[in-house]
Amino acid sequence: MKPVTLEEGWTPLVRSRRLSEELGLPKLFIKNEGQNPTGSFKDRGMTVSVTRAVQSGAKVLICASTGNTSASLAAYAARAGVKAAVVVPSGKVAAGKLSQAVAYGANILRTDGNFDRALNLTIEIVSELPSLYLMNSVNPYRIEGQKTVAFEIYQQLGFVCPDYVVLPVGNAGNISAVWKGFKELKEWGMMSRLPVLVGVQASGASPIVDAYERGSQEISPVDEPKTVASAIRIGNPVSWRKAANALRESNGVALAVSDEEIIQAREDLASDEGIFVEPASATPIAALRRLGGKVERGSTVVCIATGHGLKDQDSVHWNAEESPVIGDKSSLKSELGRLSIN
Ligand code: F0G
After folding, report:
1. How far apart are alpha carbons 165 and 304 in whole angstroms?
2. Integer Cα distance of 123 and 141 in angstroms
3. 212 with 148: CB under 8 angstroms?
4. pLDDT tens-digit map of 118-158
5. 215 alpha-carbon distance from chain centroid
6. H or E segment at 180?
7. What pLDDT, on a 0 to 100 scale, did the predictor assign at position 341?
8. DSSP letter string over 127-147?
9. 127 contact partners, CB below 8 Å, separation of at least 6
């Protein structure tokens, strides 16, 4: 069977121009996963998992989601000609992501409460109704697809292992996938070392970071996770053990950043680098600011920008009243005069 694909992957690895100077990291790169077909890294996993599901005869694919997984599943299910049901926490998903799922023709099911509850309900129902095929990142095929970002980073750096890979952590599938990809490159003899992983959570939804800071082997779930970064508003990450393992094995760091730091980083990535991301995807830049000089200047650092900014436009504050209304050419000219145009 031919794979179900929308030509995902091969996203740009963009070298930072300005934030690199501020952070004192001349070799800072942004892996722009927002350039995937549905605007997030989820597409890398969805091509594999939908292909395998269809191969096994599945007719209804289901996931719980904070938004991006639902958009991606909806698109690949449409491509494959099978049904998608997406379970989302009511009122907690960015409008751009929901409109994608609607446009691709998914069945939208809203639950009360948060994402963790939506995922629990979904996992329970899948165990009762065998005709449903679960597409969350506990599905191992998702991880197999998502690990390809590691292969690309290695190749785009000129077949070199980065020193640090910095990425947001929500349900913790992606950090496990990235780590699996790098470990395989090493096992295959393509690299002799491994990167240090930096896993970033939002401070209102940081059970993995909390456990890391306590030095604990267990997480304490956060009952009511809160953050502007709705993609990673997750209190009980299903793959937390894999994340903890990846952090330990890579000698990694887990840290939490505040909503203010996230929004500042999102603004700066857009206005300093020309890369517009959703709030969750800006957490790596906020984390590097926190780490300050702890990352050695000569290091090759890759931040994974997981999702596109157009998905979550509510996080951009713009007051139309503050921008001038142009009545005629002379008012246009006088306004442009402020920009020192002759
Ligand atoms: N960044 C974005 C933009 C995401 O949408 C997600 C997860 C993550 C980071 C974290 O990845 O969960 O593998 O640790 N979004 C999921 C969803 C939960 O439903 O779209 P993770």
Report:
1. 7
2. 17
3. no
4. 999 999 999 999 999 999 999 999 999 999 999 999 999 99
5. 26
6. helix 173-187
7. 64
8. HH-TTEEE-STTSHHHHHHHT
9. none
The owner of tokens 């929308």 is 6
Sign of CA dihedral 174, 176, 177, 181: positive
Nearest to 285 by CA among 66, 25, 44, 33: 25
> Please, which pLDDT band fits residue 342 given cuts at 50, 70 and 90?
low
Q: Ligand 1 test: best mutation among 38, 40, 139, 167, most atoms within 8 Å of CB? A: 40
Strand order in the sheet with 13-15: 13-15, 27-32, 300-305, 164-168, 196-202, 253-257
For residue 232, the one-letter residue type is: I
Tell me the per-residue pLDDT of 41-99, one tens digit each, with 9 for 90 and over: 999 999 999 999 999 999 999 999 999 999 999 999 999 999 999 999 999 999 999 99
- CA 172, 170, 199: angle at the middle one, nearest 5? 70
- CATH 3.90.1480.10 given to domain 42-141: no
**Spatial distance between the Cα atoms of 245 and 252, rounded to a whole number of angstroms:** 10
Domain boundaries of the chain, sorted by first residue: 13-40+143-315, 42-141
Domains 13-40+143-315 and 42-141 share a fold: yes
Q: What is the pTM of this model?
A: 0.97
Tokens for 8, please give them. Answer: 């995902």
Ligand 1 nearest-atom number relative to CA 174: 13
Pocket around ligand 1 at a 6 A CB cut-off: 40, 65-69, 137, 168-175, 231-232, 278, 280-281, 306-307
User: For the residues 13-17, what does the mean pLDDT come to?
Assistant: 98
Q: How far is the CA of 67 from the centre of ligand 1 (A)?
A: 8
User: Please, which residues have CB within 8 angstroms of residue 91's CB and are 6 or more apart in sequence?
Assistant: none
| pLDDT band, residue 293 (cuts 50/70/90) | confident
Q: What is the CATH number of domain 13-40+143-315?
A: 3.40.50.1100
Which one has a higher pLDDT value, 179 or 318? 179
Per the prediction, the chain carries an average pLDDT of 97
